[in-house]
Amino acid sequence: MALSTSRGKKAASVTKTATTPKPNNLTWIRNDKHGQLKGKYDNITGPLQVIVRVARAGVDTDVFYSFASMVDMPDKLLAEMINMTTRTLSNYKEQQKMLEPTKAEHLLKVITLFKKGEELLGNLTEVKNWLNKPMWKSKEKYIDWLHTPGGVDLVSQELDRMAEGYSL
């Protein structure tokens, strides 16, 4: 992954990859055809200061599409997660327009969460399974909380608690 210059701004971009739409969320959960995030996106994820700095500089739509492909998540599901439509993302890609800073920050937080989950749980299949489990004494699932940046932060804190040995 490299930083590229577009319209005078430094922007995060990755090699372009095509994604194929998946029929539904259950397919996403059960599908094990995904890569590993370890070592990827390291220069655009991490501490909040890095995420905000990168988001403000501009994040290319290629980051969205490569991440969706890497975790084998339907574009529509990831787009909804960051409060965008697939049509808007497609338009941004065609126009070589960067994601708005708030959308970029949200996406980078989701990527960081998946990286943390992969490190803690061992692989992306376990991350996907954990995100789709009901929360303790609730019918809500962790994945339901990823639709806001604050929700991503709360789910990340749950992973931190798990890493420290607390039961969830």
Automatic annotation (TrEMBL):
Q: Where is this region: Disordered?
A: 1-25
Q: What is this protein called?
A: DUF2384 domain-containing protein
List compositional bias (Low complexity) regions by residue number.
11-22
The species this protein belongs to is: Chitinophaga parva
Source species, domain of life = Bacteria
